């Protein structure tokens, strides 16, 4: 029968011989079954590829003839669980493990060459095989040792068990056909066994580890299961085979090296008690993932890659698709660089599996759009070729064959028309990997132009040397530093500081690399000395966390952006010096300078909070603060860069505050609900609680560093109680909810507070209840509120909490503002309050003008607007629909209550004042200007004041 019509002519003879040999090994029934199944052309092709491409598969089919019919008629032979109780002795265990391994390995080769399974599924099955074999061997030998020595226990009598960590590809569920398995053995605590022939736990688990390795690694007549590599354990081959948890923790904290961090990224428990294993992983996490953004990891990866490349050159491994340029290891390095750098702050990046990790990196903006798909495709091809190389003879190799016949066999097994086609595909894939690798990890000198900083190196190294002062002053002056002596003193003060003297050698080297780059980049700024002086506090603040210096050294655009922003605003410089983690925001100038909508900000914050352990309040509070600082920095950068005009800056800062308030409220609600239950009739969507914004937040006019004026309202029955075990009445619940919310906002953590909160605008001020029912709020506003409190209500709006209650508040606000008022009395009270404020707060004098409180300033405009709103809203309710002054003025025009030219003059003056106020805030200067400024605007406002108030 024509079994071989799918086989190229050059392989027909070999395939015929192998088919005949299998038929001789098999029974008639097995041959008949196989021949009947092979009427299917796709199965014929699968047989040809498998028998030609894999000597190992062919040999296994001959040793176990039933295997071929099973493969032909099944989509998955599965993993049969090992029945430990049925095993007679250690020899039976070893034989069972090896036969299972051979069958599974043969199957994954068949499925791969037949095109039935993709590489991830192949790797997963091999990983499952390894886990099952490790667990079976561990359980078997643990029983034997317990029977001899008793159960190992700690000093308190608790039973102890061995935890096996799978490293590398085993840990990542990416195991190869012929992979070694890298393991680390650990147990919780020292102690001894409880048998008559008692031994220390260390000896017990060491013997268990040795026997486990032997069952997997020893070569018998049935082959081996897995080669076991224990060199990743502490101290490598010279260290103990097994360590208790405290010893492991101490080693990694005091002696762990960067390459061990790299290895630990993929570590995963593959055997042992799950709870104990989870405890071990938590102990190891701080070593693997730093809490800060750790760019020093790139240097470590470069060193590892350089070592590998030296080995490649020395051993002529250029055709090695794992270690050579553009190979598998470079794809792994790309992914793990981002894991080590950012995994401490972005838990999602702790994903061990590379193919799952790459899309996450692109999704979070760490890889360019399309990179994940390109790298994944290249990686899958490289891994498939690697598997085919190893499938040939069950050997651990990643080197492409030099022999022409083997090349063609490889190409045919992989479904290619010939070696040239496969080689072209491999070349294309390796070029993709090489390009992406160089973009992420290549040494800076390989990707950057020769540094202009070289001429500044000598100056930095000699800046504290009096003998070099004259030459250094001349260099600084020629470099554009207008006051060279001041610049030199700044540099000498830094270089000679005790903090620098105490730096470890690696940190000192990073500083010596950074400073010439900084001097060269500052010299390109409009005011080099100003730029230098504002950035040096940041340099000082990161000396003990020199990974941030690596970030600057690695990313020349970051340094340029840093100097530009710090030159424009000392507020930005101060924020970066206080919170160096914000340097990360400068990495992507497109993201830094891209304005965000309210929805963008809320969604991004929500995603950030999802990354944090919901049970870790401290981490949640830090996440809120980090996002607030990073988004504020982005907004400030957009402002000083001219990307955002004044009104949009206030919008962005207001949207940020609203998003922070909503997330903080959800956090506080969750804590209160967990402790006390919730009030009747509430839900996550309707908490019957709302946050009302007043002042700048209410008027969408927040500036950098603004306080939040907020009031809390609820509409639950105060006489009812929450439904939790620790039940309290509703009023106390909402009061504590507000207190918890204020605590989240105001507490000074390591990152400072979120916002300062002012709740004095609530009914009755500081003497009133912190949280007011809607009924009580309405009663107070109608019967007891002062005129200035109605003025404040003009700028009030709900910003977080129950959407239903927010809508109710909006309706009540409109009703209150639209009530009829005695205009003469209103006028008198507004003027009296303004006079009182000016007397106490105005900082104007003969030479200076207070932008906010001065005559004709911001507050005068606000009072004009508030009077108009209160006096005329009954006639035109539309004028109080909005809470910001500019839109109220525009509404007055639309309602015909104010001439267009008059309102537009007030709008222009208001914008001019606020723009200058924002500029001064970013310069950390008071809101007072020279008395010669804004004369026209002040006259306009004062004229309008006289017309309205007399």
TrEMBL record:
InterPro entries assigned to the protein according to its UniProt record, in alphabetical order: GlnE (IPR023057), GlnE_rpt_dom (IPR005190), NT_sf (IPR043519), PII_UdlTrfase/GS_AdlTrfase (IPR013546)
Segments for region (Adenylyl removase): 1-445
Entry's EC annotation: 2.7.7.89, 2.7.7.42
Keywords, alphabetical: ATP-binding, Ligase, Magnesium, Multifunctional enzyme, Nucleotide-binding, Nucleotidyltransferase, Transferase
GO aspect biological process, one term: regulation of glutamine family amino acid metabolic process
Catalysed reaction, written as an equation: [glutamine synthetase]-O(4)-(5'-adenylyl)-L-tyrosine + phosphate = [glutamine synthetase]-L-tyrosine + ADP; [glutamine synthetase]-L-tyrosine + ATP = [glutamine synthetase]-O(4)-(5'-adenylyl)-L-tyrosine + diphosphate
Record flagged with keyword Cell inner membrane: no
Domain PII-uridylyltransferase/Glutamine-synthetase adenylyltransferase: 302-440, 834-923
Lineage: superkingdom: Bacteria
Region (Adenylyl transferase): 452-950
Cofactors required: Mg(2+)
Function: Involved in the regulation of glutamine synthetase GlnA, a key enzyme in the process to assimilate ammonia. When cellular nitrogen levels are high, the C-terminal adenylyl transferase (AT) inactivates GlnA by covalent transfer of an adenylyl group from ATP to specific tyrosine residue of GlnA, thus reducing its activity. Conversely, when nitrogen levels are low, the N-terminal adenylyl removase (AR) activates GlnA by removing the adenylyl group by phosphorolysis, increasing its activity.
PANTHER family reported for this sequence: BIFUNCTIONAL GLUTAMINE SYNTHETASE ADENYLYLTRANSFERASE_ADENYLYL-REMOVING ENZYME, GLUTAMINE SYNTHETASE ADENYLYLTRANSFERASE
Family: Belongs to the GlnE family.
Protein name in the entry: Bifunctional glutamine synthetase adenylyltransferase/adenylyl-removing enzyme
Gene that encodes it: glnE
């Amino acid at each position: 029968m024509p079994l071989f019509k799918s086989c190229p002519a050059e392989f027909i003879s070999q395939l015929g011989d192998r088919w005949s040999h299998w038929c001789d090994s098999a029974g008639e029934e097995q041959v008949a079954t196989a021949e009947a199944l092979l009427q299917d052309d796709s199965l014929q092709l699968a047989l040809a590829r498998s028998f030609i491409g894999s000597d190992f598969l062919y040999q296994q089919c001959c040793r176990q003839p039933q295997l071929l019919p099973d493969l032909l008629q099944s989509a998955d032979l599965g993993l049969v669980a090992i029945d430990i109780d049925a095993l007679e002795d250690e020899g039976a265990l070893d034989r069972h493990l090896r036969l299972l391994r051979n069958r599974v390995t043969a199957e994954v080769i068949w499925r791969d060459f037949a095109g039935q399974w993709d590489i991830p599924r192949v790797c997963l099955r091999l990983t499952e095989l390894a886990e099952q074999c490790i667990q079976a061997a561990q359980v078997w030998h643990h029983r034997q040792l317990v029977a001899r020595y008793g159960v190992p226990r700690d000093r308190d009598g608790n039973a102890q068990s061995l935890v096996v960590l799978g490293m590398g590809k085993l840990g990542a569920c990416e195991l190869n056909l012929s992979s070694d398995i890298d393991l680390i053995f650990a147990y919780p605590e020292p102690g001894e066994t409880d048998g008559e022939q008692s031994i220390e736990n260390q000896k017990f688990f060491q013997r268990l580890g040795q026997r486990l390795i032997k069952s997997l690694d020893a070569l018998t007549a049935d082959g081996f299961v897995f080669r076991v590599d224990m060199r990743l354990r502490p101290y490598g081959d010279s260290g103990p085979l097994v360590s208790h948890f405290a010893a492991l923790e101490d080693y990694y904290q005091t002696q762990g090296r960067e390459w061990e961090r790299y290895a630990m990224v993929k570590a995963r428990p593959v055997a042992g008690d799950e709870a104990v294993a989870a405890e071990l992983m938590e102990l190891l996490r701080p070593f693997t993932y730093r809490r800060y953004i750790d760019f020093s990891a790139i240097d470590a990866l470069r060193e590892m890659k350089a070592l590998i490349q030296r080995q490649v050159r020395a051993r002529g491994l250029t055709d090695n698709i794992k270690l050579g340029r553009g190979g598998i290891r470079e794809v792994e390095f790309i992914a793990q660089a981002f894991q080590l750098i950012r995994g401490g702050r972005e838990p999602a990046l702790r994903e061990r599996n590379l193919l799952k990790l790459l899309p996450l990196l692109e999704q979070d903006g760490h890889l360019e759009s399309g990179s994940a798909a390109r790298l994944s495709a290249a990686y899958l091809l490289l891994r498939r070729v690697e598997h085919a190389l190893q499938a040939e003879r069950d050997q651990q190799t990643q080197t492409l064959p030099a022999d022409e016949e083997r090349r063609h066999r490889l190409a045919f097994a992989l479904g290619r028309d010939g070696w040239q086609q496969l080689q072209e595909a491999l070349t294309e894939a390796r070029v993709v990997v090489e390009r992406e690798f160089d973009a992420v990890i290549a040494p800076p000198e390989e990707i950057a132009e020769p540094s202009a900083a070289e001429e500044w190196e000598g100056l930095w190294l000699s800046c504290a040397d009096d003998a070099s002062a004259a030459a250094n002053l001349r260099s600084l002056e020629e470099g554009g530093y207008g006051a060279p002596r001041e610049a030199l003193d700044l540099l000498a003060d830094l270089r000679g500081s005790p903090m620098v003297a105490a730096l470890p050698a690696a940190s000192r080297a990073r500083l010596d690399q950074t400073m010439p780059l900084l001097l060269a980049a500052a010299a390109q700024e409009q005011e080099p000395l100003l730029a230098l002086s504002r950035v040096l506090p940041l340099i000082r603040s990161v000396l003990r966390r020199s990974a941030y210096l690596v970030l600057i050294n690695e990313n020349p655009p970051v340094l340029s952006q840093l100097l530009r922003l710090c030159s424009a605003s000392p507020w930005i410089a101060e924020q970066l010096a206080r919170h160096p983690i914000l340097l990360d925001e400068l990495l992507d100038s497109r993201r830094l300078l891209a304005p965000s909508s309210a929805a963008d900000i809320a969604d991004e914050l929500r995603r950030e909070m999802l990354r944090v352990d919901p049970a870790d309040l401290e981490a949640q509070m830090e996440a809120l603060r980090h996002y607030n600082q990073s988004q504020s920095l982005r907004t400030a950068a957009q402002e000083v860069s001219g990307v955002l005009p004044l009104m949009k800056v206030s919008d962005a800062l207001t949207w940020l505050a609203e998003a922070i308030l909503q997330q903080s409220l959800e956090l506080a609600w969750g804590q209160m609900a967990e402790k006390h239950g919730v009030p009747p009739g509430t839900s996550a969507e309707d908490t019957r609680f709302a946050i009302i914004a007043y002042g700048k937040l209410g008027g969408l006019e927040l500036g950098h560093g603004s306080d939040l004026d907020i009031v809390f309202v609820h509409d639950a029955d105060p006489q009812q109680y929450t439904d939790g075990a620790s039940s309290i009445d509703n009023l106390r619940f909402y009061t504590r909810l507000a207190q918890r919310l204020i605590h989240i906002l105001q507490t000074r953590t390591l990152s400072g507070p979120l916002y300062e909160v002012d709740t004095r605008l609530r009914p009755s001020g500081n003497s009133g209840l912190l949280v007011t029912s809607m009924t009580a709020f309405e009663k107070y506003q109608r019967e007891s509120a002062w005129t200035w409190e109605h003025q404040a209500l003009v700028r009030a709006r709900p910003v977080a909490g129950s959407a239903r209650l927010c809508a109710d508040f909006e309706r009540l606000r409109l009703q209150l503002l639209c009530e009829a008022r005695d205009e003469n009395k209103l006028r008198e009270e507004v003027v009296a309050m303004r006079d009182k404020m000016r007397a106490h707060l105005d900082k104007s004098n003969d030479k200076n003008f207070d932008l906010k409180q001065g005559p004709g300033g911001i507050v005068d405009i606000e009072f004009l607007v508030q009077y108009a709103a209160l006096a005329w809203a009954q006639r035109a309710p539309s004028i109080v629909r909005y809470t910001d002054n500019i839109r109220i003025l525009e509404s007055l025009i639309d309602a015909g209550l104010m001439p267009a030219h008059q309102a537009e003059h007030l709008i222009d003056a208001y914008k001019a004042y606020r723009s200058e106020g924002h500029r001064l805030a970013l310069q950390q200067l008071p809101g007072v200007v020279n008395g010669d400024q804004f004369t026209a605007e002040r006259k306009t406002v004062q004229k309008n004041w006289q017309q309205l108030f007399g």
